[in-house]
Amino acid sequence: MDDELLDVVDEHGRRLGTKRRGDVHRDGDWHLAFHLWVVGPGGVLLQRRAQAKASWPGRLDASAAGHLTAGESVADGLREVEEELGVTYRMDELHALGMHRVDEVANRELQHVFAVRDDRPLTAWTDFDRVELDGLVLVAHAAFAALVNGSPAPARSWDGTHAGDVTVGPGDLVPTPYLSALVPDLERVAATGPR
Predict the structure, then answer these.
(1) How far apart are CA 7 and CA 68, in angstroms?
(2) What is the model's pTM?
(3) Which of 58, 84, 99, 152 gets the most CB atoms within 10 Å of its CB?
(4) Which residues of 146-177 are buried (b: 16+ CB within 10 A; e: fewer)?
(5) Which residues are CB-neighbours of 171 under 8 A, at least 6 positions away?
(6) What is the pLDDT of residues 41-63, one digit of tens each?
(7) Ramachandran angles phi, psi of 30, nearest 5°
């Protein structure tokens, strides 16, 4: 994984060259990522990152997220969705929510962020990658807004075999500085109906 090549970009997304992923993170280079938030009438679908992940193990993250490898377009980020969630979407089904900057010491990403409405119930997500993800968590829209603003929230958890009620807190989330700004957009996409 550390050997995969990523495009190194400047803070505006202009390509500067390529580097191994491990070197990009070590050196704090800007690089590109793709994030998809799946929403529906029941709320926001989050992935629980596997405990074996090198970064943010066990934390809740966007429904599907990952690096764009060297030479990939933003649309190629849909590969991450198929790999992680086991579903396929087309770009014309997605709602673009902008490019957001995450500027951390070991992770400087320009994240191309999208949302999609998908009405399937939590337990219908049966093809997610059980190596990359420990499961999925569904948080109702009002509870998600409270969660990203610092309050614990009730949720439903699904590991592919068992579903149950859980409470998640802000410390369970992968730090995402722009997350509270996405709440109205995610609610808007959920209200639009499937494309």
Answers:
(1) 8
(2) 0.95
(3) 84
(4) bbbeeeebebbbbeeeebeeeebeeebbbebe
(5) none
(6) 999 999 999 999 988 999 999 99
(7) -70, 140
